[in-house]
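Support request, please re-run this one:
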Amino acid sequence: MEDSDQGQMPIQDLGARLRAERQNKGLTLKQLADRAGCSLSMLSKIETEQASPSLKTLHQITAALGTSILQLFREAGGQDVSLYRHGERPSVVVRRQSDQPAIYIERLSPTYAGTMLDANIHTLEPGADSGGDIRHDGEEIGYVLEGAAELCVNGEVIPLVQGDSFYFASALPHRYRNTFDGTTRILWVNTPPTF
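Re-run finished. Output below.
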């Protein structure tokens, strides 16, 4: 997908940021792969931008590093007011394999230290999914901007369509997928920040 398709600025250095954080923690690739529950070769491909992780895998890697997706992209400073103009918001692409549908996570909220909210727009290509159950501290709320999706929380499958909203405790196992034949976009807010 080209940048102009979504009006986003893709974050090209996810792998470099993960590698820097791993090295900062004094971990080898194998140690981090073991802690995160992913293969050494997959982690190496992610760090060298040859593969994009699923959302679940990205959560596992950042948790194994003792950080979060948000902290990897922490911005300098901290301001009372922050603005991301359309076409200038940072985004990250997650997918399980390069030939599978992707999820684009577009940042709406700043990543300053001490922020209490984490707001993103998740854009799911047809058939895209989060890659398995995720669980972490906090709460989540979402609103389906367009398309349709299936949210599974604690084993309960919840069909969602445009205009639906949802809330759940993040400690419950959760995952989602696009069940629509077109693109699905969801406004997703977490507290505390986990992305």
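The radius of gyration is 16 Å. The first strand starts at residue 8 and ends at 10.
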